[in-house]
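Recall that a protein's primary structure is simply its ordered list of amino acids. Everything else, from secondary elements to tertiary packing, is in principle encoded there. The following example makes that idea concrete.
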Amino acid sequence: MAQHIEDLSQFLQSFGVAPLALLLLPVLITALARNATLALATSLLSFTSLMLFVAPASAINGLGIVSGLGAFLVALESIVARGRMMALNKEIADLTSRVNQLERAEQRRLTLEIKANSRSPPRSDHHGPSPSHGGAT
């Protein structure tokens, strides 16, 4: 194990900073998106590409492990997405219920206003004869 770590450190030093930045940049961008599952998946893919550069002989074993972990992350993300969708559906149902209550309350208010206006005598806002009552034209 110590030999692998030493080989890895020599390998990374031979590449310099630019390739490491290219491997870490997707992880940082995904971390800024604040999605933990996608950040883990991006880290896994970056680690896989680094591993394939460092030890290409163990690519088959590494790809098997990474594909299993990737499947786990996809399943985890689907569970998280389902929870978000259920919470969104619950919120939409709650808002729909509130809108229906407001609509019924407005309908009652309008009905009461119409009944109150039909019982009261008509108001005359005009001062003087109106043209429909035989006034001068």
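The first helix runs from residue 2 to 15. The chain is about 80% helix and 0% strand.
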